[in-house]
Amino acid sequence: xxxxxxxxxxxxxxxxxxxALRGMGLRPRMEVAMGVFCLDLRLDxxxxxxxxxxxxxxxxxxxxxxxxxxxxxxxxxxxxxxYGNGSRRLEPEEEEVxxxxxxxxGGASSSRTPLRQRRGLPPKGTVRIAVEVDGPSHxxxxxxxxxxxxxxxxxxxxxxxSLQLVVVPHFEWDxxxxxxxxxxxxxxxxxxxxxxxxxxxxxxxKADGRHSHTNVGTDTGCGGAAGRHSASRAxxxxxxxxxxxARRCIAAAPPPTISTSS
Length: 262
What we know:
By secondary structure, the chain is an alpha+beta fold. It is built from seven helices and nine strands. The protein has one domain (2-53, 81-95, 122-238). The longest helix is centred in the first third of the chain and has 16 residues, at 56-71. This is RAP domain-containing protein.
């Protein structure tokens, strides 16, 4: 996910993942504005979704229909918001609008109160999934396949937005040779994300299943943001580390000497 202050750029890897999702009969939306983030891919699935392979001819026909729909000029209402040096067009399903409501009568009750409402919310039983395609810039250059702190922070923020997160690292995607292997890879992760989940003790949905693996370099199975649970725990240890460093400096410093003059 890129910040809105930057112009959205669709990478070749992102196009490949989107094409694979369309080949599975899904309709992902690309570059969807969500809060301060711009999601790579967004799609809604029914809870407990399972992928059923369709005949090749049916997949090709559906893909051709979608390509024709994309080529047609669309006339729809959209907002343009400028942040810094770049601008983003918000999707109608994700944009937030301010509605002014007039109170009845006169005096203070007649003031216009802005209310933020979100349009196009999915129906009950629908799982909102964000698919993030992470290229090499999301990982450390000196530690192979180790996510950056900013990437881990993004995952935490998206999970807090009531989104189910599916992460596609570039090094896992590059290992998949055939189109069927890529679809099966995405299907395993989407099934895990759309699985019914119980509410935790705090009433918030659990994020289990997307952090079940600890070895990011070898994981090609199910789960979305695999291997990042332990990293997210240590995401904000700055205060502790600073305190430890300060204590070490104080302990290493020699005691003050008091000079007495006769």
